[in-house]
Amino acid sequence: MHLAELNVARLLAPLDAPQLASFVAALDPVNAMAEAAPGFLWRLKDEVAPTVRHDYGDDLLINCSVWESREALWNFTYRTSHLAFLQRRREWFSRMAEPFMVMWWVPPGSFPTAAQAMARLERLRAEGPGPEAFTFRSFYELPAEAEVSG
Asked: By mean pLDDT, which of 9-13, 46-50, 74-78, 133-137 is the weakest?
């Protein structure tokens, strides 16, 4: 099984606003770094990056990807220069009171749609962490039989 993740953020301004210029300038390099990271398998792409989904509210940015393991995602997120951008998120995004990141297991070769990923986030928000929707802090390992059967 592979690990899918979704994180969302509400932009403080339109993407073309001067306030977001440093964020927008970093998108291609950070995405390229993710795609080159050990354990990276796939990310949701739209005609325009980042994916801004107006169907989920004005200026909601979504990032969805699939990784070989928790460790691969963790290492990219917190042990590369990606961390510097996480530390600057308050410059670009509104503070969210509800969960904004969710993970879940997917079969190899399975890549979630935006709607499927958002449904996982809604499940986490409604029910809290569980085997179908969890976080780094409340992580759910695969049962041993799921690892073998795939």
From this structure: 46-50
